[in-house]
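hi support,

uploading two proteins for the ticket. first:
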Amino acid sequence: MELSTGKILEENLVQSAFHLTQGDEFTFDNLFPSQSWIPKIIKKRVCTTFVEDSLRYMCVCLSVDCYGWLCCGGVRETHCSIATGDFFGAAIVSQWDSSQHSSEYPTDAFGELEFAGAGRRHSHFLRLSCDTPPHIIYSLMTAHWGVPSPNLVVSVVGGREKVKPWVREVLRQGLVRAAQSTGAWIVTGGLREGVGRCVGEAVRDHAAAASSLSQKKVIAVGVAPWGLVHNRQWLVNSEGSFPARYYVQNTSHDSCCLDSNYQAFLLVDDGSVGQRGGETAFRAKMEDYISHQRTGIWGSGSIDVPVLCMLISGDAAMLERVDLSLKKATPWLVLNGSGPAADLICELLDALSAGPMSPPSPQPEVEGSEKTSAELRDRARERVRRHFPAKADLEKLVDRALSIYKNRDLITVFHGEQESSDDFDTVLLKALVRASKRVSSDASEYTEELKLAVAWNRVDIAKSELFNGDIQWKYEDLEDSMTDALINDKPQFIRLFNENGLNILDYLTYRHLEVLYRSLSDSSLAFTLLQRLLTERQGLAICSPKEAVALKSPQNPMSPLSGPSSVKELSLYEVSRLLWDILGDVCEPFYYSLLGLDQSASTRRALKQVNKLLQGDCSYREQSCLYPWASLFIWAVLQNRSEMAVYFWEMAGESVHSALAGCKILRELSKLESETETKLSMKELAQKFENLALDVFSECYQSSESRSFTLLIRQSPVWGKATCLQMATSADARHFFSHDGVQSLLSQIWWGDMKRSTKVWKLVLSFFLPPLIYTNLISFRLVEHEEEVRSEEVPLGRDTESLDGGDATMLSLSDIMQTEEDVEEYAALRDNLKSAPSSNPKRPFVLLRWREFWFAPVTSFLGNVLMYFLFLILFAYILLLDFKPPPPHGPSTLEFVLYFWVFTMVCEEIRQTFFRGNTTLYQRMKLYIEDMWNKCDITAISLFALGMCCRMFPWSYEFGRAVLAVDYMVFTLRLIHIFAIHKQLGPKIIIVEKMMKDIFFFLFFLAVWLLAYGVANQALLYSYDPRPGWIFRRVFYRPYLHIFGQIPIHEMDGCTNNATLVEAGAEPCMSTDHNWLVVILLVIFLLVTNILLVNLLIAMFSHTFSKVQEHSDNYWKFQRYNLIVEYHSRPCLAPPFILISHLHLIIKRHIRKIPSTKIKHFVLEIHGREASRLNTWEAIQKENILFAQNKREREKDSERLKRTSVKVDNVLKQMAEIRDHDRRLRMLETELEYCSSALSWMTEALSQSNLVKTTRPPPCTRPSCSKAPPQHDAATPVLHS
């Protein structure tokens, strides 16, 4: 059967391989579109041989309950007519065997189980043959049923008798809580009897008190024999039950019904009916298979899944179950005092340890290799007889007991009445570590214990037991556990490892980084995006012509996907592509230089280079990651792991940059995420990073204003040479821009070398009368500028800065606030300052003051506004008064001036599109088009060009005039963007923009009512009107006028009913047959539109206004930055004089190759010692923020209550230990009293007998002896034979 099912699975896997390469999630649902695949793979067993049992009064199939083999136990009616015959000829069947006397058929019971009246979610169930391969069932449970893969499997076995109260407490407080903290499966029989019922009740109590996330971590699985399940016929359905209703009688006594508190049921069928033990073999195989699977996501953990069997009570047959599991090296936890079998094993371990038996070998014992002494066997027989006196096969039980004792290193005893259930998880850990040490003798005990603690996410155990200072950990010991903690999202362990000797520079190589990206969960958005990019690269590798020829050659019969595994696996190129798609508008590509790629290369060429690189030795993978914490931060942010991402942010440098980058990545991913809950969590984490960036920058601004300015405009080598301002703009971080430090820098840049207190009317007056700039009308910061330039001349060897934020600045404001001047001239100015600081030769005052005024962004803005108003006045004058006929009579001279003016605007738009930044042409065009006002400019210029061309010809003259008139409206609306700089009008622009979106929703509802009422009104009033134009007018236009109260009564006069005249164009008369209905429709229409829809629109406007007005300051400050950047990059002259500036820029940038120094106002590149000192200073401010946050967190009432609760728990634990010590002392006193009484009795008996002749009186207590006279002759008693 295993071969056939494996073949079926293999064929379906091959068929689905193409879909898997496309990034689809692999589940059984992808293999089979419905549930019909289950009977094709999973089988049941049916008894095919009926042999009458002569030992019973009724006619049943042979049911001799012999030790070691199974029986059917079903009546004749349960066997089919064909199966009742003797299939074995004349052979006499004396013993029923499942493998010989039953056959496999497709299963007929599977699906979901609904417990009537339980009110719980559905449970999964499956009837399966006892010979079913366990790997199929495990894959079914994890991949199809969605059961989380376990970090631990606790298989609870025991008897059917009543469970003791302290055992119930251990199950409820110890086992279930340990399962919740470790993510374990609890496997029992799943029936409402004995131990299975107690475990179900413990899981139920936990689910009632725990959160939904904690409930998912506790998985209870029932493995029961099919023939023993009560009312199993309700589960039978050959096509599956979704769900099957199962009725359970709620009684206090035990029964063989399924327990409603289990998440999954595996009903093992061996063909028997009403018999126990049919599931034992399958359960043991299932446990053994799971024990060889890896923990973590997709088996990414560092250890196999630990499997621990737990024995509670049990009968004599349970000894065989324990013995078989111990021989497979499965550890056991035995509850002493819980019942016969458990008590017997505990007594064997205590009593036989003192016997003459050699210590166990560290290697597994071979059966029969060591003979026990007769004395040891007698002692074992005595204890077996004490616990199982009625058993006839005593010697077999003794053999089982001795075999169990040989593997005693795998057994851990839990004394429930003496040990607390709070320490049960620690007991589990110790038991598994003890077993792993026995199996892996070469492994360190502490390493195995650490791996288990990581697998269970028990950092408290690791801190108290492993990282308490007694153990010196090495890097090799922590490497695997670090990988496990990273992949399975355990940030507390990562913090613990980093604090205890793990060097992240040694750990995180690029190979490790690729492994981390390959381990992404297939349910995450990042995994899907990376798989798409990987499929694209693999597709190019397959379709490459050279490779295709090579693949077709007879010397290379490989498939297209064969070859080096690195070509087929995820690489850093896919990660770089993903980050480029997310951050490409502000950052340079990540890992391109590492892979030897050129940023300007096309995608296809880059893919070919990467495939060629991956086919080689890939030497880059052995290099240490250049920025390890930042790389891990990106990896965690892409997976939306909040706690881990915050910790990596704390460890990474450039805190403000990193926080804003995380905010940008998360907000971009949230736009692509389809799951609502995940999208909200991404947005919350993005806001958290924005707040962190704001807090750190606020601390930096309070420490040093000049350094904080440098921090904003510094290019980051970690984040692709992006600045904080660029990253914040791309991340839409409005709260960050609203900070006073950011606005202070923007104001400095906006006013240039002029003082910020300058009045606007002074600027306007100086704009029209330029000689006024040489007077004292406008104040300049020239003296301050010279002092700042001189402050740069401090010798480099003299450290005048303090890392905690002194008054000295690392970079003076002259580096930030330079004017637009040539590099050579500025260098000459610096040389002159160095040589003669007392008499600095400067530019001529006239030229210097001219540059300081006209090169300020505020002057450029003012000039553009004034010239734009002149442009609109000229445009309006031409449209209204000077719009000449087509050539040769026109256009006029002023109209040609207007054409030239628009041409200069086109030149400026071309400059903004193609001559800004160092990005690719596609990115420049994309960034240009994304701006709404640039779209408005394109529309206006396009309409102007169309109108200008049309007005040149007589046949299209009027149309061109109309186009230009409409275009004037577009140019006028462009004025709205200018008012964005105003603090009061700026937010109103945002309000209008958002209200436009509300209007579209309103118009949609309005159009529905217009269409409904218009068509009905036209059909009722006009029986015949063949004119389409008039029909369209009455259907849409006239109902729209009805909203405003305009009802055209005058159209009722001069009408006709003559069809010929109507077709000729006459107005048809209205029909009066349905006037009453028309009036009703009109009333309803006006009621809905004028009252309902209009008030709905007003309410939407009010909501939008209040929402924007609440954050109007943030909106304005963010808008202000974009406007300042735009006019800072514009030439100082406005159209139409802007051509002069364009020619100057062409000569300066492209002919003389002089780079711009004005860009340093927003982008500053620093290296070496200055960059290191700035990073150190920023890190100190971040530490101050984190310390303050931790202090506030500790002072919260919830944290105080938590610490108090821990202290109370410790006190209660100590009190429990004191009570335990007191109980033990009382027991010791009782034993001493007994011994004293026995000795007194012996003394009295000896004194009354003739065996001893005393020469002195018996001893007495000290007080009584102190009163008696001292005895000087001490004679010893003499014994007579």
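and the second one:
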Amino acid sequence: DIRVDGTTKNTLEYEIVQVVDSGPILRDMAFSVDHEHLYIMSEKQLTRVPVESCSQYETCSECLGSGDPHCGWCVLHNTCTRKERCERSSEPRRFASEMKQCVRLTVHPNNISVSQYNVLLVLETYNVPELSAGVNCTFEDLSEMDGLVVGSQIQCISPAAKEVPQIITENGEHPTLQLKSKETGMTFASTSFVFYNCSVHNSCLSCVESPYRCHWCKYRHVCTHDPSSCSFQEGRVKVPEDCPQLLQAEKILVPVEVIKPITLKAKNLPQPQSGQRGYECILNIQGSEQRVPALRFNSSSVQCQNTSYSYEGMEINSLPVELTVVWNGNFNIDNPAQNKVHLYKCGAMRDSCGLCLKADPDFECGWCQGQNQCTLRQHCPAQDSQWLELSSTKGKCTNPKITDINPVTGPREGGTRVTIRGENLGLEFRDIASHVKVAGVECKPLVEGYIPAEQIVCEMGEAKPSQHAGFVEICVAECKPEFMARSSQLYYFMLLGFDPFCCLCPSSFTTLRPVSGGTQVTITGNNLNAGSNVIVTFGRQPCLFYRRSTKHIVCNTTASYEASHGNPLLRGNTPIAVWGTHLDLIQNPQIRAKHGGKEHVNNCEVQNSTEMTCQAPALAVDPNHQSELAERPEEFGFILDNVQSLLILNKTNFTYYPNPIFEVFNPSGILELKPGSPIILKGKNLIPPVAGGNAKLNYTVLVGEKPCAVTVSDVQLLCESPNLIGRHKVMARVGGMEFSPGMVYISPDSPLSLPAIVSIAVAGGLLIIFIVAVLIAYKRKSRESDLTLKRLQMQMDNLESRVALECKEAFAELQTDIHELTSDLDGAGIPFLDYRTYTMRVLFPGIEDHPVLRDLEVPGYRQERVEKGLKLFAQLINNKVFLLSFIRTLESQRSFSMRDRGNVASLIMTVLQSKLEYATDVLKQLLADLIDKNLESKNHPKLLLRRTESVAEKMLTNWFTFLLYKFLKECAGEPLFSLFCAIKQQMEKGPIDSITGEARYSLSEDKLIRQQIDYKTLVLSCVNPDNVNSPEIPVKILNCDTITQVKEKILDAIFKNVPCSHRPKAADMDLEWRQASGARMILQDEDITTKIENDWKRLNTLAHYQVPDGSVVALVSKQVTAYNAVNNSTVSRTSASKYENMIRYTGSPDSLRSRTPMITPDLESGVKMWHLVKNHEHGDQKEGDRGSKMVSEIYLTRLLATKGTLQKFVDDLFETIFSTAHRGSALPLAIKYMFDFLDEQADKHNIHDPHVRHTWKSNCLPLRFWVNMIKNPQFVFDIHKNSITDACLSVVAQTFMDSCSTSEHRLGKDSPSNKLLYAKDIPSYKNWVERKSTLLCCYKFWTLDILGKKKTSITSSSLLFQILGALDQDDQAGKQKLAYKLEQVITLMSIDS
């Protein structure tokens, strides 16, 4: 079939149909009646052929692209057919007759993860007919789901979880998404779809660089399509730049058997989280894996720790080893730069000094002469003073040695290249450049043949007739005995000779040889193996050397092309294109031309079987008779092996034209031009004299190395000069000719003067010098930076070791002290406060003598009425309706402050101690009201009980205070007191600033001394004030302690078993130093010896007084006047009130000793006090005044050391609180009772979130009671708490609250230090909290007698009216006449009544 209406003008064949078995088809053809078939005849056969064969096309594009006018695409039947055979083909878009009407389909998204199921897929369709019967989406018939038609879109749901694996198994990750018509049951459209699997990626870079939506969770080390599954927000990686990866490192060299760390630069290194293992380096050495612990300095640096490596064998001197950095066991860090560690052995394959010193300088190998081996400097014994290394001034190897010379014979005329091999033959060419002699003759070393330390190649000079043989002698650098060597072999001078008839051909002796070459010729003679190089020529033709011996030289002749000595040849070499058949069968095709009786031949090059290119042969024409007309050769043809028919082609009109002739530019041969001017070459015969003038020659003109555009006429060539300046040679090429008319000088437009050139040269030279200086300075600075970095790393290592050692020693010492303390506790007991003092300190903090503890202070004439009023009021308080109305009315007042709410709650709970069941009922009602109010106000449920903002919350605190006293005393008190004592003793082991409260040992970053304080521990012998004759008591003191601190430590040592309230006060005692000479001296914080510098006055310390170790001191009652037993002169004493005025406190009285004092200038002199560190807030402090020049954050490691020392005591306290069994004492039922009540309230309000319930309970008990007890142990014990102890207890309390929280603590580099400090412990504490789920033992409520009568004064008339109004409106209050009873109370208590 032939298509004649195609897109191009030519007809196109688009189908060949075999219709008859054999023979031609006759012209007579006829259509069937229905015009669907064509009858075709041959001489023997009649065939019926359909006019179309549409069914052979399987796609719309194939169908409509065939051009068959009968065929179209039936869309919903998905077949190529005639229009009348397509059902409902007249309806729009059901039958396509043009390519642009084919159905197209796109899907969004076009890819999903294999772990995503039931995802909405939106398919955008084009040219799809109406689909009222419905449509299905299928994946290769493995999964089928209904499609929803919305306009031109079809919405489908991706396969379910159980179907995806089967689809991927059957079709891989790229199945076809198809649309199937419900009307026809046929698939009518399809598009590609991808199920991608992120989990196959096991590295961050391959994950985020995949073409799909994959994210890397760097803390879980997995690749996922769902970034929310990553543990931390900061752990999600989307781009390669954020991947943890090693950076390109310089060559990492590690000598074997040497302990050395490997430091690698990186970026985005993750910090292992709680429960995850640290970093490791894995080196795969000769198939075995070696794991080395690694240290992550920060996110951009990791170091493989000090370790030695080795590999087998001495035949490898440097072994590249694969390096992998992992963390948490098998979490690889990407290594895109393919960094490797190069292990090396200095001694491997370096048996001589020269081989050793020529090794890579970065190896730092050297020659140890004592051991006679190549090694590192640290492995060479110190007594061996002769250590040779390349960089040293004496880095020259002695004792060179010659092991071999080749050849050992040579002609006397010289020119022989002698190869000398040996050991220690210099490290640079200049070492041997002029010190080589062979048999007494100078032999000139050649640079190209020199191999440092191993080989010298030199060229022999001419020998004298008297010289016959000798040794090879060399000097390395200098001709001293230790640098000289002589060979053991002799070198001989030989006389070469040839036989008279020396040319041997394969068959017979002859001096003839074929012009084509290739003949093997043997030359005979004597000593023909002498010398190093052989060149054989016959005339001017070389003979290629093959082999030789003493008697023979064998070579192969080359082709001879000797020119005739007659007339010169007329130039040929014009390329000729030749066409023919089977030309590729000829091995050596040639073209020939015969002119004037002489034949000339040139070569041809076969391109393929039908084409070859030949160079025209030249003609021999006498230049004196050369005609300017064309010449024709007498014979012209081709030499194609033995093809005789093509030797002469006389029918070919092959014509030679006269050679073009060029003239020189001028007599000087130099043509001067301006830039852009054309170059004109004059001559003749530049255009061949052909009839019609259409023949042109192919000219090439080069100016220097650059070609130029050429315009040709008969007598001149016009060349557009290229963009050049200066002097250049002009060369014209045409055919096989080359001609140079001379030089062209193109002068620049504005040539520089000589001064300008000199100036530019000088400036360039200065610039180069400056750049070199900058590079040298940069190199030096880089070296200094590297040294600084190494020093810092060493300091970090030392610091880490120091911290670990300090922590270990401190813990051991503290354990000893705590053991002594425990022994003391067993003997004297823990100083618990009595119940009365305990409850008053918790209920009314800061008020030592509360009115509720005192008798009524009213005039006698009113006492009876007031007592009667109080009894009536007590009855009202015991009425639940009145009490609830009373509390609600009070809380509705704007003037009812937070302090007032707390006081009312404490007073009510004090009154109701004897009726705790009633108090509990009231408390539950108030808490229920508080929960309702909290939920109604749309506050977050977790905020309930967070702050004390209501009477109910304070009552709840007091309720736990009453009910948990026994538990505190029997169980939790001992670990709490041990923790307090441990903190106090640990803090006092280091310096504590008495002004700022900062300490060397601390858990709080705010209370840490961030500088190095030099101090010593002294042991003072203190006289017992109760019995001066008893043995002196040793007391550990620091020489940097103030006098007041010394007195407090002495009091702690003397009265360690006495409660704090029964001890003498340090302010009431003086410290007396009893010197060996018998003199006595009163030591004070301030006296006339106190130092003052720049308005700063420093408190006196033991170091100020220079008190030595072992001194005897005593505490004496404070004297009215000071004295000095040495000179009896009066010492000015600073009054206690003056010093105390300098320390101002804020807060309630109960916390006077636990707050940080503020520095206030002395009002008399304007000076500011300081002890160990000056206050940071004062602007006159200069940088560097705080001691160490290191950054202050370096001292944060002390927090870790202190935490490690106190860890056991914190664990003991938390375990006691979180446990349910305590040495026979059951956990009080009050906790279980209150927790059940909170669960009931949560159920009532449909709160089923376990986190909300847990938060309510945490805010109820840990936050409201335990945190208060931990931060304020003085509520439970008779102790003194200073500011540094208070800060440390606050950190422990915060850790306690974090342990009770259900929220996840996401920590980062900006997190508070106290949270980072216990980050790894909090998960363990949380497990303890979860285990405390039930309370097993019963609990019996207990009460104590009321502490005293409640006395209150109600003075606000408006408040009274509001309370009375509330009682009147309440039905139950009205029935019980509560308003009337309250009016009676008011009347009785009124002063005017």
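thanks. also noticed: The chain has a mean pLDDT of 79.
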